[in-house]
Amino acid sequence: MTHELPKLPYELNGLEPFISQKTLEFHFGKHHQAYVTNLNNLIKGTAFENASLEEIVKHSEGGIFNNGAQVYNHTFYFLALSPKGGGEPTGKLADAITSTFGSFAAFKDEFSKAGASLFGSGWAWLVADAHNKLRIIKKTNAGNPLTDGMTPLMTMDVWEHAYYLDTQNARPKYIENFWTLLNWEVIEKRFNEL
């Protein structure tokens, strides 16, 4: 199986002014593409040659895991952004967020703090645990909640390459911008498939 860069549901300049075309050219076009290329080269002749991305993330280690998880994480991140994003979730996801965190505002604050306080590079995740209870977790480097038996619903990339061209070292500004781009329909669909 050959893994490929996903088709974005927006143009490279579609997330401006919050995420610039230049950032997407590097982050999506170079970083994400490099993970895809590396993964395809690394899995040749291995037990993962015909494995799905989820199987690679759950069962591999070393370079195959790092590149496979980064392909998964980036695809998951990019496909949940939209030029018409922002606002708040609705339906069952909104109810679950309120039930778990007290309010959408409290959830947003806790998720933002998770991303802002993650030391170094990594990801903030909204996940459903084995009992479908919502949780916010942090993962460093290529970390992915699938390895802990959790179902990812939403992620925020807090590697510097996700924001440095736009906000330099101001990760909190990037996090503020992130909320204006979230495509809640995509995230709600993931939640409704639990």
Automatic annotation (TrEMBL):
Q: Of which family is this protein a member?
A: Belongs to the iron/manganese superoxide dismutase family.
Q: Which UniProt keywords apply?
A: Metal-binding, Oxidoreductase
- InterPro entries linked to this entry: Mn/Fe_SOD (IPR001189), Mn/Fe_SOD_BS (IPR019833), Mn/Fe_SOD_C (IPR019832), Mn/Fe_SOD_N (IPR019831), Mn/Fe_SOD_N_sf (IPR036324), SOD_C_sf (IPR036314)
Function of the protein: Destroys radicals which are normally produced within the cells and which are toxic to biological systems.
The protein, known as: Superoxide dismutase
PANTHER family associated with the record: SUPEROXIDE DISMUTASE, SUPEROXIDE DISMUTASE [FE] 2, CHLOROPLASTIC
According to its UniProt record, which reaction does this protein catalyse? 2 superoxide + 2 H(+) = H2O2 + O2
Domain Manganese/iron superoxide dismutase N-terminal residue range list: 2-81
Enzyme class (EC, first level): oxidoreductase
Known Gene3D superfamilies for this protein? Fe,Mn superoxide dismutase (SOD) domain, Iron/manganese superoxide dismutase, C-terminal domain
Q: What is its EC number?
A: 1.15.1.1
Q: Name one Pfam family in it.
A: Sod_Fe_N
* Chain ranges of the Manganese/iron superoxide dismutase C-terminal domain: 89-190
